[in-house]
Amino acid sequence: MKAVLILAVVGVALAQTPAARPIFDEFEVATIKPTNLDWPGGGRFMRMQTAHQFVARNYTLRVILAAAFNLTPKAVSGGPAWVDSDRYDFLAEAPGAVRPNTEEQMTMLRKLLADRFSLTFHREPKEFSIYALTVAKNGPKLAEAAPVESPEGAPPLVFVLSPSGARLAARDASMGEMAWVMQRSALDRPVVE
């Protein structure tokens, strides 16, 4: 009986606690450069390339601000004319060993934008027409995804627009994340869930 008890105590003492999730309040390092005018990609995208590397390419300041605050670009008011004309590429490194979720990425992006562009913000109510994500009459046709255990996280949500239609492939994404991608990428008004 004594031997079993001693082994149990030793097993508990040797058990490792998982590493604490880092606080994602700002990027460790970041660069913002004007987009190269002859960039072959032509479009724009924003995503975590790896667990640590955040990339946003070919964004005007108004559109990246809207994405950072989960708004449509029409909801962002003010600023000089260049906020709608000059385009920027962002490359930043996130802290820690795990991929930040969408909200954590946007928290770091808001801080970066405020610091680098010396921006100040205030909120005021505005009325907009909206799109609402609702469940169809026959119920949802979505399947719950198994959690992704990789430090790289789930694949990024990418909205693909083409002449043949629009496609949003999503795995391990919440309805809120899908609404966020739709309103910042393809639609002209807020999307609510």
Shape: globular
In what order do the strands lie side by side in the largest sheet?
A: 1-4-3-2
Q: pLDDT under 50 segments (min length 5)?
A: 3-13
Taken in chain order, the helices and strands follow as: HEEEHEHEEEHE
Explain what you see.
There is one protein chain. The chain is an alpha+beta fold and 193 residues long. The chain has one domain. 25% of the residues lie in helices and 20% in strands. It is built from 4 helices and 8 strands. The protein has a 4-stranded antiparallel β-sheet with strand order 1-4-3-2. The longest helix is centred in the middle third of the chain and has 16 residues, at 102-117. It is globular. The relative contact order is 0.16.
Give me a quick take on this structure.
With 193 residues, the protein is an alpha+beta fold.
Note the main attributes of this structure.
single chain, 20% strand, disordered N terminus, alpha+beta, 8 strands, 4 helices, globular, 193 residues, 4-stranded antiparallel β-sheet
Reconstruct the topology from this structure.
Layout: H1 2-14, E1 29-34, E2 45-48, E3 53-60, H2 61-68, E4 87-93, H3 102-117, E5 131-132, E6 158-162, E7 165-169, H4 175-185, E8 191-192
Parallel strand pairs: 5-8
Antiparallel strand pairs: 1-4, 2-3, 3-4, 6-7
